[in-house]
Structure formats: structure tokens, C-alpha cells
Amino acid sequence: MPSSKDDLNQAPIAQTFHRYLIPAIAGMLIKCVFIFIDTLFIGRLVGSDALGAVSLVIPYFSVFTAIAMMFGIGGATWMSIEMGKRNLEKGQDIFSQTLTLSLFVFTLLSAVCWFTLDAILVTMGAEGPIYDLSREYMVYLLPFLTCYSLVWVLSSFIRNDRNPKLAMIAMVSGALVNIIFDTVFIWWLDMGVGGAALATGLSQCVMIAILLSHFFSNKARHTLVLRLARMSRETCLKVCQIGTPSFFIELALTITIVVFNVVLLNYYGEDYLIAYSLSLNLGVFALFILLGISQACQPLISYNHGAGSSQRVQQSLHLAVKYGVLTGLILATLALLFSTQMVQWFIVDDSQLINLSSDAVRWYFLAAPIMAINIIISTYFQALAKPRQSSVLSLLRGLVFVLTALFILPSIWGSAAIWWSFVFAETMTVGFSIYYFNRLKHEGY
After folding, report:
1. How far apart are CA 366 and CA 268, in angstroms?
2. Domain residues of the chain, as ranges?
3. What is the C-alpha separation between 316 and 6, in angstroms, rounded?
4. What pLDDT is stored for residue 2 in this prediction?
5. What membrane topology does the annotation report for this chain (predicted)?
6. Position with higher pLDDT, 100 vs 258
7. Average pLDDT, the chain
8. What is the pLDDT of residue 6?
9. What's the rounded Cα separation, in Å, for the pair 88 and 313?
10. pLDDT at 182 over 80
């Protein structure tokens, strides 16, 4: 059993929140740094065409991530609620079945992707050098996508099993290994985007090995045991139901990226595709930090909801919103001041592309303070096992409003308005976030 100082419904809420916040933010920052350096290696050593190629294959990552987050966050949230009720055996069973389901689904999905790779790349509009580079990247990466997905699943459960530091250590170690392998494969061996993909894949194997050490630890506060279990239809459906908002976040992002890629490549040109790719790669700094804050509050909200401590649930939420909005304001300010310098780390000797990319990055980061509110309130509903409201918010901000803006704003204000889509989507969604939150408060939450 956990010691009292580790009990999620006994220790002071601010202390407990910070115990989860610091590893979550640190881990996400390191992950951002690794994505940044990975992009830097590709942009500087392979070329701007390679950046466009990586942008085209982001949807593959997104599909695997969407399902992994649905399984991991859905299962871990339900597990935390049950453990808050002191149903420890039920919590273990949820973990075991979710792990079995994950292994089966991701192995099958990897095989499907392998046999449909060429057809999907052509459908997304890839041709010439971008097609060749995209295909090379995926050929090296596909064997590791099951491992990549299991990292998300295991991290979610281990974090909720009162071991957020190990999740952080795994992420930090994976990032460092990725940088080392980038240096070896891209710089020394001149393997191009294939080397970048191989570095990413091997780093996931390192992360899995570190995460698995959780189940061989002798620390008494860890309650989960590593074992597979026969899947029951009811358990799998409920895990997916609770995790649906996380799935929709990534699914919406995937669809949006595909649509943006097709529209930009066919109607605006490769420069716009490259600018969009850079805005995504730099924008993950904002997105991942805000996701780190939401990850910190989710176990506290779920556990205390299960334990019937509504006051601690509200305290956790208020702390997360405060940190999220403040972080978003800082990031937006930095982007306004330094977006051009950030872009010049990746692109040299092309002033037109630098200006275009700077504009895209600036507008993405301006959405960060509002994005924080939407992400954290969506996480709040999911942590309470109320996936319907969370799913609606995820689809509105990630799909409906952003694509509406993509097709309407440029027709009125010109091509520069493409980048306004990010701010438009978050601003429209925040009204729904506040409405749903106030409605839930009136119901007694």
C-alpha cells in the first residue's frame, strides 16, 4: 500500500500537484528538445525537402499516438478512479487487459501500414523527391511503431501508479539517445532521413526498457504488476470510451495535418508546406508543455474523484489552469519577439521562406494561452470519466473550427490568413469549454 505522504487524497494538494508537475514538464521539455534537434539535423544536414517529407508522414505518428493515448489515458484514468475507491485488484485488471489489447492492436496496425505505405503516400499528394524521402523515412520507422505506441501506454499507467519521475527519466533518456543516434546516422554515416527515422525508433526501445524497470522495483508505493490478461469486451470498451477524447485530439490533428498538407501543397506550394511543418515542429514546445500540465492534474483529479474528495478535485483543476495560462502567455510573448530567429535555426539563405515560416510560427504560439484553458478543461472532463464533453471540445478545437478557418479566412483576407486558423479555433472553442464547465458545476461537481 502507498505511504501516507504519497497518498493522492491525503498529502497537501499543491505539494502533490508539484510532485507530478515537475517531472511532467521536464519530460515534455526534453521531448521537445529532442524533436527540435531532430528537426534541426534534418533541416540543416538533409535539406528543406526533407522537412516537407517528415511533415507528410506525421499522420502516421498521429494515428498510432491517438490509439495509444486512448488506451493509455483511458485505462490509467479508470484505474486511478478505482484505486481511489481502494479497488486495487480492479485497477490491476484494467492495466493487464489494456496492455494485452495494446500489443495486439499495434502489431496488427503496423502490418497494415507496411502493406499500404505506397498507396497512402500517393493519396496524400507526395511526388518526386518528397515522395522518395517520405517513403525512406517510413521504411526505417515502421518496425518501431509498436514500441513507440507502448511507450505512451506504459507512461500513462506508470505515472498514475505514483511514479511520475520514472516516466520523466524514460523520456529524457530516449531524447538523449535519439540525439546521439542522429549524430551517428545523419552526420557521420550520411543516412539522411532514414537515419533520422532509425534514431527515433531505437530511442523508443531504450524508453521501453526503462519504463519496464518500474515493475521490478521494490518500492512499496508501486501497486501494478506486469502481466497480460485475457481481454473482456466490457473492459476494452470502457477503456476506449474514457480514452476517446485523447483519441479525438490526435485523430483531429491527423485529419487537420493531412488536409493542410494537401491544400498547401496543391494550392499554395512547397514553401507553405515547409512553413506549416516548421510551425508544427516548433509548436510542440507549447503543446507538450501544456499537455505536461494536464498530465500532472489528471491522476489527482481521477483519484480524488474516486475517493469522493470534490474539494481536492477543484483545487487540482485551478492550479492546472493557473499554470497553463501563465505558461501560454510566456510562450506567446517569446514567439512574438523571437519567431524569426527560431526559424533561422532551420532555414538559411531563403528570406522569403524565413518570413513565411516566421509568420506561421508566430500565429501558432499566439493561441497558446487559450489552448491551455481548452486542453486542461478537456482533461478535467476526461479525468472525471465524462468523455462526451471532452470529446466535443477536442473535435471543435482540433478539427471543426481549424478547418473552417482554413477554407474561409484565406478567401476573405488572402493567403496570410491561413495561419490565423490556430487562434480562431482555440478562441471559438474556449466558449464551449466555459459553458460545459459551468454546466457541470451546477450539477454538483
Report:
1. 23
2. 13-439
3. 16
4. 43
5. Multi-pass membrane protein
6. 100
7. 85
8. 47
9. 21
10. yes
Predicted TM-score (pTM) of the model is 0.80
Q: What is the SS3 assignment for the chain?
A: CCCHHHCCCCCCHHHHHHHHHHHHHHHHHHHHHHHHHHHHHHHHHHCHHHHHHHHHHHHHHHHHHHHHHHHHHHHHHHHHHHHHCCCHHHHHHHHHHHHHHHHHHHHHHHHHHHHHHHHHHHHCCCCHHHHHHHHHHHHHHHHHHHHHHHHHHHHHHHHHCCCHHHHHHHHHHHHHHHHHHHHHHHHHCCCHHHHHHHHHHHHHHHHHHHHHHHHHCCCCCCCCCCCCCCCCHHHHHHHHHHHHHHHHHHHHHHHHHHHHHHHHHHHHCHHHHHHHHHHHHHHHHHHHHHHHHHHHHHHHHHHHHHHCCHHHHHHHHHHHHHHHHHHHHHHHHHHHHHHHHHHHCCCCCCHHHHHHHHHHHHHHHHCHHHHHHHHHHHHHHHHCCCHHHHHHHHHHHHHHHHHHHHHHHHHHHCHHHHHHHHHHHHHHHHHHHHHHHHHHHHCCC
Distance CA 445, CA 442 (A): 7
Contact 432, 392 (CB under 8 A): yes
- Single out the residue of 206, 200, 169, 207 nearest to residue 182, CA to CA: 200
CA distance 244 to 73: 9
Residues 6+ apart with CB under 8 A from 13: 300, 312, 315, 316, 319
Grid cell of 152 as nine digits: 505512451
| Angle formed at CA 238 by CA 223 and CA 290, multiple of 5 degrees | 70
Q: How far apart are CA 289 and CA 29, in angstroms?
A: 7
* 158 vs 283: which has the higher pLDDT: 158
pLDDT digits (tens, 9 = 90+) for 195-248: 888 998 999 999 999 999 998 876 545 578 888 888 888 999 999 999 888 888
Cα separation values, 29 from 256, 282, 286, Å? 24, 12, 9
The band of 408, judged by pLDDT with boundaries at 50, 70 and 90, is very high
Compute the distance between CA of residue 66 and CA of residue 329 in angstroms, rounded to an integer.
27
Residue type, 146: T
